[in-house]
């Protein structure tokens, strides 16, 4: 499969793999503790001692970025799994059962999708705080309707195919139809949509953190790192540029990898 990847797709997978590895092992390989002040000088430039400079308190930015990766990637990944998983299950149920079930699910999620995402996020954070579980659940709920629409449209299309009609005529149950006939034929596009949900959630959470409503001190994600080092923007300090570059590189890497995640499966591979 690697030989068939385009250079852009391979680059995207490498970037994505790097940041996932940093989310898991970043805290262990970071040269300093996240909150340790390593120098009395603030906003130091890139150097051999501090590869990404220092922040507004004199902390090592490389360590801060590596420690923050687990919150940016981890929270977004958890929320994307909730959104795509819920959307996939509800979409297949609506497609297979149809009728009142389809109508009830669709109208309920249409109501949710009509609420602007940032407004919904602000209300949830104001009501329940901005703990990591709340952020994960909030972002997952916001992006479930979009994932549902994609999954439902794909499942409805496959459900109308002849091989599904034949399976239903020979007496196969709903669980079999979903597991063996519909899911294998929509998994590629669903994975591609999962990548898009992940990017949307990264950007939403970064925006929330930039407003001070995301991950709270002493922890910090990349959006928080940009916000707290804004004083160094006028002198182009690495402390404010590097977290922004990390966000950009992750989103670009995921977008480049989406074609790979969406490939490798063929539509209509039914019996």
UniProtKB/TrEMBL annotation:
The UniProt record lists the keyword Cell membrane: yes
Topology with respect to the bilayer: Multi-pass membrane protein
Protein name per Swiss-Prot or TrEMBL: Peptide/nickel transport system permease protein
Database matches in SUPFAM superfamilies: MetI-like (SSF161098)
Main location: membrane
Swiss-Prot/TrEMBL keywords: Cell membrane, Membrane, Transmembrane, Transmembrane helix, Transport
Family to which this protein belongs: Belongs to the binding-protein-dependent transport system permease family.
Gene3D superfamilies the UniProt entry points to: MetI-like (1.10.3720.10)
Compartments in which it is found: Cell membrane
GO BP annotations, alphabetical order: transmembrane transport
Transmembrane parts of this sequence: 71-98, 119-143, 198-215, 236-258
Domain ABC transmembrane type-1: 69-258
Gene source species: Falsiroseomonas stagni DSM 19981
Gene Ontology CC: one annotated term: plasma membrane
């Amino acid at each position: 499969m690697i030989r068939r990847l385009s250079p852009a797709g391979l680059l995207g997978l490498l970037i994505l793999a790097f940041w996932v590895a940093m989310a898991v092992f970043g805290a262990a390989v970071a040269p300093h503790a996240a909150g340790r002040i390593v120098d009395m000088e603030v906003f130091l430039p890139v150097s051999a001692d501090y590869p990404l400079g220092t922040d507004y308190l004199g902390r090592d930015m490389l360590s801060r970025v590596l420690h923050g990766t687990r919150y940016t990637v981890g929270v977004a990944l958890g929320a994307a799994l909730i959104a795509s998983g819920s959307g996939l299950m509800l979409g297949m149920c609506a497609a297979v059962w149809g009728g009142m079930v389809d109508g009830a699910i669709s109208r309920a999620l249409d109501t949710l999708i009509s609420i602007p995402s940032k407004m919904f996020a602000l209300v949830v954070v104001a009501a329940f705080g901005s703990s990591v579980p709340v952020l994960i659940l909030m972002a997952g709920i916001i992006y479930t309707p979009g994932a549902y629409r994609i999954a439902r449209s794909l499942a409805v299309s496959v459900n109308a195919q002849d091989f599904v009609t034949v399976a239903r005529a020979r007496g196969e149950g709903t669980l079999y139809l979903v597991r063996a006939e519909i899911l294998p034929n929509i998994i590629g596009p669903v994975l591609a949509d999962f990548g898009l949900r992940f990017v949307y959630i990264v950007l939403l959470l970064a925006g929330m953190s930039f407003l001070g409503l995301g991950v709270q001190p002493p922890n910090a994600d990349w959006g928080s790192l940009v916000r707290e080092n804004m004083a160094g923007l006028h002198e182009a300090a690495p402390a404010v540029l590097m977290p922004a570059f990390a966000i950009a590189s992750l989103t670009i890497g995921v977008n480049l990898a989406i074609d790979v995640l969406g490939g490798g499966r063929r539509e209509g591979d039914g019996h």
